Structures are given as C-alpha cells and as structure tokens.
Amino acid sequence: MDSENVPNLSDVTKKTKGRQKIEMKTIANKCSLQVTFSKHRTGVFKKASELATLCGVDLAVIMFSPNNHVYSFGSPNVDSVIQRYTTEGPPPLFTQDLNEAPCTMDEGELQAHLNCLSNQIDAEKQRVEDLNHLLMAAKDHIWWDVPIESMSNAQLEKYHKMLKEIKLKHMRHTHGE
Description:
Blueprint: H1 30-55, E1 59-64, E2 70-75, H2 78-88, H3 107-141, H4 153-174
Antiparallel strand pairs: 1-2
C-alpha cells in the first residue's frame, strides 16, 4: 500500500461536536422549541413503550406541544388506562401502617395529587359562584317571593307598574276586549 494514499490521523478533524451536556432551561426560540419537542416526544414514547413491555404495566402518556397540540401514547391504549384510573380512582397516598418504617414519597406524585385536588377545589368554587349568580338572577324574576320590607323604592315602583299591567290585561281578558 502506498504511504501517500493513507491519511494522516493527526490531520483528521471531527466534523461534529459530538455528545455534549446541555444546560436545562426553557428554549426561547419558538422554532427550536417545537423541533426539540418533536424529537424528544418520540423518545419519551419509546421509553414508555419499553417500560410497559419490560415491566408489564399499563400506562398512558399525554403531552401538549408548545403549539397546544395533544399527543398521547398508551399501553394497551390511552382510553383503557384513563377509564381504569377514573373507575378505580386515584391510588390512596398513604396506605402504610404507621408502625412500619416510613417510606419515601415521590415529591412529583405528591405535587401532582396536590395539583389535582387544587383544581377540583377551584372547580367547586367556580360552581358555587355560578350557582350564586343564578340565584341572584332568579331572585329578580321571582319578585313575589321577596318580602316587601326588603324591597327598595325603585323595586316597589317597578313591581307596582307590573301589577297594574297584569290587572289591565286581566280585565281585558275577562271582559272580552
């Protein structure tokens, strides 16, 4: 072999940077953010599939992209996992006997459960507020149930005019006009 045709290894330079450590922070560029999400989404789904296969577990992964598109993966499928979770309910947080050695609770699980409970409380508060608005609106339409003593002068005048109109309509109806 000719020594002229063999490349000198000291002259060969790397064309890529190779695998480098990336600082964990939110990506500011929207285009780069979407590309990174797309690449990592497939990796997350692949790892979820491996976990489901290796450990024999049912799981569901639901992701919202930066553009608010929904992506999901489930084993056996997302619907069956969600149905199972909703019918059986979330697992209790503290199931151990207090006499046993304490176990370490995953902070992420506790935070997720706290967020779920907080969302439920917020939804119930909103429901109460909506019902109170409906009640207030209904009170304006059910004027005959409101005690006269609690009515303002403007309300009394309004209802007095309404009663006059009702009386006139009744008289016209009974006299055949």
